[in-house]
Write a structure and sequence with these properties.
This protein has 389 residues and is α/β, with parallel strands linked by helices. It has 11 helices and 14 strands. A hairpin with a 2-residue loop joins strand 6 and strand 7. The two termini are 33 Å apart. The protein binds pyridoxal-5'-phosphate.
C-alpha cells in the first residue's frame, strides 16, 4: 500500500445509490411490523417493476439466481435437456441450468458486442435443446431479433437473463420484455438494489402461477400447509421490497447518470493506448451498468489493475469464461473452440460505474486510466489473435 493511500480519493468500482426516499420507505415498512415476506411493498414492487418492463406479471424472489432457477423449473427443464448459455456471462446463468439437472451448452460471443453470437447458437442446437438463455452483458442488449428468430424456428423457449440490463432497450423495447420468462437481479452492485433480490416477469399467467407456487414451498393457494410438491422458499421481504420501490422510482435518473458517465468515458478514452470498449449497435441502448475496457493482451491485465488500484481507482476483472471455471472446464461443450470469449474474458477490466459518480470523477478516473495505460501497454507488443487457451 502506498504511503499516501489514505489521502488519495478512492473511487469504488461500484456502490449502491441509497437516499432519503429509501430510508423513508424502509422505515415505514419497519414501523408497520410487516418485516417478512407479506406486505404492501412486495405487491407494489412486483406490479410496478412488471409494468416498467411492459409485462403483465412480476414475481419477486430472493435473488437473481433464484429467478433463473424458478424460470427453468416453471418451463419444466430438467435432466437430459440442454440449455444454450453464453460462455461469457456471470456464473449464475450456467449454474441455474446445472441446478435443474440440465446441461448448459456454452456458445461463443461476438468480438465487438461481447454478447452471444447467434450463428454459434444456431449451430449448437440439438434434439435435446429446450431453451436459450439470452444475456445482455454489462447492460448492453444482445442480438434479440436474431436470437428470438432462432428460438421460434426450433420451437425452443427463451429465458432472458436481464440481471444486468434494467432499463436497457432494443429497438425501443425494454430488456425484460423478450423472454418467455425474463429474470432480474437486485444485488448490491446492480442498477437498482434491494440488498439481495430478484424478479421474474412474464406475460404468461400459467408460468407466473407455477413460479409463485414453487417460490412458496409448493403450497396450495387457498389450502394452508397443503404442499402439492417439493419446492422452495425464494421469497423477498417487505423490507427489501420497500427499498426496491424507492430505487425503482429513482431508476430512470440512475440510468441517465450512468449513460452520461459512460459517454464521457468513451470520449475521454477514445485515444487511450492499447484498449477497446464494448460496441453498442444502432437501435440498442445500454443502461451502462458497468463500463468495461479490454486491454490488448491478457498478460498485462493484472499489472494494469494493480496500478489503477494503487492510484485509487476501484477495479474488477470481467467474468472468466464459463469454459475456464473448475465446475465447467471438463464439460463437453467447453471442448468447443469458444475462441472469442476465451480471449475477451481474460482481457477485461470494469471501471467505476456507479450512479453516484460525478462528471468530475469520470474525468479524474479517465486521466489515471490513460496514464496507466500509456506506462504499461505500449511496452508490450500487441499480439494478434492471442489465445488464452
Ligand atoms: C447478477 C447476475 C445474476 C445473479 O443475480 P444474483 O442476484 O446475484 O443471484 C445472474 N445473471 C447475471 C448475468 C448477473 O449479472
Amino acid at each position: 500500500m502506498s504511503p499516501n493511500f489514505y489521502d488519495m480519493k478512492h473511487y469504488p468500482v461500484s456502490e449502491p445509490n441509497i437516499g432519503k426516499k429509501e430510508l423513508l420507505y424502509v422505515q415505514d415498512a419497519v414501523k408497520s411490523g410487516w418485516v417478512s415476506s407479506l406486505g404492501p411493498y412486495v405487491t407494489k414492487f412486483e406490479e410496478s417493476f412488471a409494468k416498467f418492463c411492459g409485462r403483465t406479471h412480476g414475481l419477486s424472489v430472493s435473488n437473481g439466481t433464484h429467478a433463473l432457477h424458478l424460470a427453468l423449473c416453471a418451463l419444466r427443464i430438467g435432466p437430459g435437456d440442454e440449455v444454450i448459455v453464453p460462455n461469457f456471462t456471470f456464473v449464475a446463468t450456467a449454474n441455474a441450468v446445472t441446478y435443474v439437472g440440465a446441461t448448459p451448452v456454452f456458445v461463443d460471443c461476438d468480438p465487438k458486442t461481447w454478447n452471444m453470437d447467434p450463428s454459434d447458437v444456431e449451430q449448437s442446437i440439438t434434439k435435446k435443446t429446450k431453451a436459450i438463455m439470452i444475456v445482455h452483458l454489462y447492460g448492453a442488449p444482445c442480438d434479440v431479433d436474431e436470437l428470438l428468430r432462432i428460438a421460434k424456428k426450433h420451437k425452443i423457449a427463451v429465458i432472458e437473463d436481464a440481471a444486468e440490463a434494467h432499463g436497457a432497450t432494443y429497438k425501443g423495447r425494454p430488456c425484460g420484455s423478450f423472454g418467455d420468462i425474463s429474470c432480474f437481479s437486485f444485488y448490491g452492485n446492480k442498477t437498482i438494489t434491494t440488498g439481495e433480490g430478484g424478479m421474474c416477469v412474464t406475460n404468461n399467467k400459467d408460468l407466473h402461477h407455477r413460479m409463485s407456487l414453487l417460490r412458496d414451498h409448493g403450497m396450495h393457494a387457498s389450502k394452508k400447509y397443503w404442499h402439492l410438491e417439493v419446492a422452495y422458499n425464494y421469497r423477498i421481504t417487505n423490507l427489501q421490497a420497500a427499498l426496491g420501490c424507492a430505487q425503482l422510482e429513482r431508476m430512470t435518473s440512475f440510468i441517465r447518470t450512468k449513460n452520461t458517465n459512460a459517454h464521457l468515458y468513451r470520449k475521454l478514452l477514445a485515444n487511450c493506448p492499447g484498449i477497446t470498449v464494448q460496441d453498442i449497435p444502432k437501435n440498442r441502448t445500454s443502461n451502462d451498468w458497468q463500463f468495461v475496457i479490454l486491454v490488448h493482451h491478457h498478460s498485462v491485465r493484472d499489472i494494469v489493475m494493480e496500478k489503477l488500484t494503487a492510484a485509487g481507482v476501484g477495479v474488477r476483472p470481467t467474468f472468466y469464461p464459463m469454459s475456464e471455471l473448475p465446475p465447467y472446464v471438463n464439460h463437453h461443450s467447453s471442448q468447443r473452440s469458444l475462441a472469442v470469449s476465451r480471449n475477451i474474458g481474460l482481457r477485461g477490466i470494469c471501471l467505476p460505474s456507479s450512479s453516484t459518480l460525478k462528471k468530475s470523477d469520470i474525468r479524474s478516473i479517465a486521466q489515471i486510466v490513460t496514464s496507466v495505460c500509456a506506462s504499461v501497454l505500449p511496452s508490450t507488443k500487441p499480439t494478434r489473435k492471442s489465445s488464452a487457451a
